[in-house]
Design brief:
Elements: E1 2-9, E2 14-23, E3 26-35, H1 40-55, E4 64-70, H2 74-91, E5 95-99, H3 100-112, E6 116-124, E7 127-136, E8 139-149, E9 163-166, H4 178-182, E10 184-188, H5 195-207
Parallel strand pairs: 1-4, 4-5, 6-9, 9-10
Antiparallel strand pairs: 1-2, 2-3, 6-7, 7-8
Helix pairs in contact: 1-2, 3-5
Length: 232
């Protein structure tokens, strides 16, 4: 299979774009990442243009577009969704929304080979966006559903697994329950979601036929979904 998939993300203080190119079993990913607080609108499309120029392709060569659908910054999610929708409408290409928390888990797995990961992003108002994942061989499986909740309300599955926490939500480390803290061997607060992992995840979703029309794409805010439960 031949594939050119563009991914973009503006869910945090960072702004990032990535281009995954596949030819048969061979895959490569070009990526750009910038810390651009309050400058996502100004930088996102120029970064896309720069990346396509580097790859020496035009937008018409793209087969699909992935974007960080959330959770994350409300403003950033709207910017990423609107930009992705605009590109998809203009090119008549499918869209793939990718969870920022899942992309963060994949990043931690690929960089550090962590297997049992808690991803948590600062949701402001004293809350975090959080989920737990099992990662193996670049595959990411959801363990506990994504939710927004106070750190004190977060809990882990009842097993003896050695969990690792990643994401800005762990700047609130002292507010997590003692039982959660003792179950984590470490926590890394300086990791943000990136378009690079969204490209890898989006390519798998595209191969599975999960692309959708541009008008159906929606950000995932989670603010009105506070349940913390294991998925069915």
């Amino acid at each position: 299979m031949s594939l050119h998939l563009l991914a973009l993300d503006a869910s945090s203080s960072a702004c990032s774009v990535a281009l995954l190119r596949q030819n048969g079993a061979d895959r490569e990913c070009l990526a750009r990442y910038e810390m651009t607080p309050r400058a996502h609108t100004r930088r996102l499309m120029p970064m896309v243009d720069e990346l396509l120029a580097q790859a020496q392709i035009t937008p018409a060569a793209l087969d699909a577009i992935a974007f960080g659908q959330g959770p994350g910054s409300f403003t950033g999610l709207r910017i990423a969704t609107g930009t992705a929708q605009g590109l998809a409408f203009g090119l008549d290409r499918p869209l793939l929304g990718v969870s920022t928390l899942k992309a963060l888990a994949l990043q931690a797995h690929r960089r550090f080979h962590f297997r049992y990961i808690v991803t948590a992003l600062d949701a402001r108002m004293g809350e975090v966006y959080a989920a737990t994942w099992h990662c193996l061989n670049d595959s990411v499986s959801l363990e506990q559903a994504e939710a927004v909740l106070a750190p004190e309300a977060f809990s882990l599955p009842e097993d003896e697994t050695d969990w690792v926490g990643v994401g800005s939500g762990f700047t609130l480390w002292e507010r997590f329950a003692a039982t959660v803290q003792v179950s984590m061997s470490q926590h890394l607060v300086d990791m943000e979601p990136r378009a690079e992992e969204m490209a890898w995840l989006g390519a798998d979703d595209f191969a599975a036929g999960l692309g959708q029309p541009a008008h159906l794409a929606q950000p995932v805010y989670l603010r009105n979904n506070v349940a913390w439960k294991k998925p069915a």
